[in-house]
Specification:
Layout (H helix, E strand, L loop, with lengths): L1 H21 L11 H9 L7 H11 L4 E4 L6 H14 L11 E4 L3 H18 L5 E3 L6 H8 L5 E4 L1 H9 L5 H7 L2 E4 L2 H4 L5 H7 L8 E6 L4 H10 L6 E2 L7 H4 L4 E7 L5 H10 L7 E5 L2 H12 L5 E4 L5 H12 L5 E5 L6 H4 L8 H14 L12 E4 L6 H8 L9 E7 L4 H11 L10 E3 L5 H25 L6
Parallel strand pairs: 1-6, 1-7, 2-4, 2-5, 3-4, 5-6, 8-13, 8-14, 9-11, 9-12, 10-11, 12-13
Helix pairs in contact: 1-3, 2-5, 3-4, 7-10, 13-20
Bound molecules: adenosine-5'-triphosphate.
């Protein structure tokens, strides 16, 4: 009987919030602070996305929330706005530790969230201090960052655990002060090997703390975290994402594929870019880091300036490249997500407590972090130079365009070997134009003649580069 009543309440509440998600409420009607609304307007944001319409009122009511919504749906503001609003209400309070923790899986995401929070605070002209931690910081740097203490702490779970272990943060202070705990990209945190780190601080999270889990997919990991962290028994999983493709691939992204011999991928990419068949900015995904460098050099010889982004680059360089790309300093970025390459299968399975295997897993997963959650600004086109190895990889790559209310396109170059993956993608998203907008179809704008007209020059450049790359030892012989 009790279970039925709880089920009914949950059902009714879900219905209410489903209705809220589909109506046209403004930020003001959601109860967002006028300063934050003005700040959003300065960023060109004037109406909430569906996940924001649903999540913001709930979070403002103080509920624990598990928010599941597709990539690029605006989850960051869905938690940042109510979190800041709560802090605005009590700017001058004395405290022993930060009032809010935002935990994310990678350093790039720490940086991304940090930039977003600081810019909102500055635009609102409110005195709040934000600290961003990373695992390269020495205990003295961590101590300095936490002096004050800041109002908001943005960190990976590992770095937070380190602060506790080194005595930089006191469990009692967390227990006395923490009001909001946010786990962003919650579906990734455990797969990044953070379980023990999370377990090391959860006992110190006070029962009164509001906990939010933001995630792009549902998984057993999210359920595990939910059990580990959420205190408030009223947990609402927001009904935005189901298990079908319409829920995960943005409807405003046109998806194309091109059949292309494996050896001609450089040439086809060149043709697509040189003939301006796609709209900028362009994010190109390769499965192999060497190939990304080769592609960069090749395009450069045709006057197309690009940068590479992969987990082998030092983190500072990665952050710098992301910042420059997002600031519009160049239009083409070649990213490698090694988790989509064969190397992933060769990774040793994680043994219990095995330091070595955990390290290896972290390395591979941080490379996956190049794709997941990163908000590449104003990307219109995603090119799969190599097909990702799974439909999930495809969905995450495509999710880098068509973010929030913008539109976008994707083109996948498919060699004979990759046809099987294309078939899987087709089975998932559909390949029949009549089925609706959310399908993958053959790219109609690149003719064989157009490709062939570039072949001779491309081959000359290719041979020139071949000797060049041998000398430089930067790239391998293709
Ligand atoms: N209400 C809005 N209107 C227009 N743009 C928005 C709105 N809210 C957020 N955005 C923009 O949409 C983009 C995607 O938002 P965000 O990074 O929060 O998505 P996400 O759901 O966290 O995606 P992912 O799961 O990939 O991390 C950002 O550039 C953000 O500035």
């Amino acid at each position: 009987m009790a279970a039925t009543t709880t089920e009914n309440i949950l059902k009714e509440t879900m219905q209410r919030y489903e209705e809220d998600a589909s109506d046209d409420k403004s930020f003001e009607e959601l109860g967002v602070d006028a300063r934050l609304i003005r700040a959003l307007l300065k960023k060109g944001i004037d109406k909430p996305t569906p996940i924001q319409r649903v999540a913001i009122p709930l979070i403002l009511e103080g509920k624990d929330v598990v928010a599941r919504a597709k990539t690029g749906s605006g989850k960051t503001f869905a938690y940042l706005l109510p979190m800041l609003q709560k802090l605005f209400a009590n700017v001058d309070r004395k405290k022993q530790a930060p009032n809010a923790f935002v935990l994310v899986p990678t350093r790039e995401l720490c940086q991304q969230v940090y930039i977003e929070v600081v810019s909102l605070i500055e635009l609102c002209r409110v005195q709040l201090k934000v600290a961003q931690l990373n695992s390269n910081m020495q205990a003295s740097d961590l101590r300095a960052a936490l002096t004050g203490p800041p109002d908001i702490l943005i960190s990976t779970p590992a770095c937070l655990a380190k602060c506790l272990f080194d005595g930089v943060l006191q469990p009692a202070s967390i227990n006395a002060t923490l009001e909001t705990l946010i786990l962003d990209e919650a579906d990734l945190l455990l797969s990044y090997g953070y379980e023990n780190d999370i377990k090391s601080f959860t006992p110190h999270v006070p029962r009164s703390c509001q906990c939010l889990l933001m995630s792009a997919t549902s998984s057993t990991d999210v359920d595990k975290l939910k059990k580990l962290i959420l205190h408030n028994p009223f947990i609402l999983t927001l009904p935005e994402v189901g298990n079908n493709k319409d829920d995960v691939i943005p409807k405003n992204v046109q998806q194309f594929w091109i059949s292309c011999p494996a050896n001609d991928k450089l040439l086809y990419t060149l043709a697509v870019l040189k003939l301006e068949l796609v709209q900028k900015k362009v994010l190109i995904f390769t499965n192999d880091i060497d190939m990304s460098f080769r592609l960069k050099l090749f395009l450069e010889k045709f006057g197309i300036k690009s940068a590479v982004l992969n987990a082998e680059l030092p983190q500072n360089s990665r952050l710098h490249i992301l910042e420059e790309f997002n600031a519009g300093l160049f239009d083409y970025l070649i990213a490698t997500d090694v988790s989509q390459s064969k190397e992933k299968d060769e990774a040793p399975k994680e043994g219990k407590g095995s330091r070595k295997s955990r390290k290896h897993k972290l390395k591979l997963d941080s490379e996956f972090g190049v794709v997941r959650g990163i908000d590449f600004k104003n990307v219109f086109t995603v090119i799969n130079f190599d097909m990702p190895r799974s439909v999930a990889g495809y969905v995450h790559r495509i999710g880098r365009t068509g973010r929030a209310y913008s539109s976008g396109a994707s083109i996948s170059l498919v060699s004979t070997d990759e046809m099987e993956t294309l078939e899987e993608v087709k089975a998932f998203v559909g390949d029949d134009e009549n089925k609706g907008s959310n399908t993958i179809v053959e790219f109609p704008f690149l003719t064989k003649n157009a490709v062939e007209s570039l072949r001779y020059r491309a081959e000359v450049i290719y041979h020139f580069l071949f000797s060049f790359t041998l000398e430089e030892k930067t790239c391998k012989q293709p």
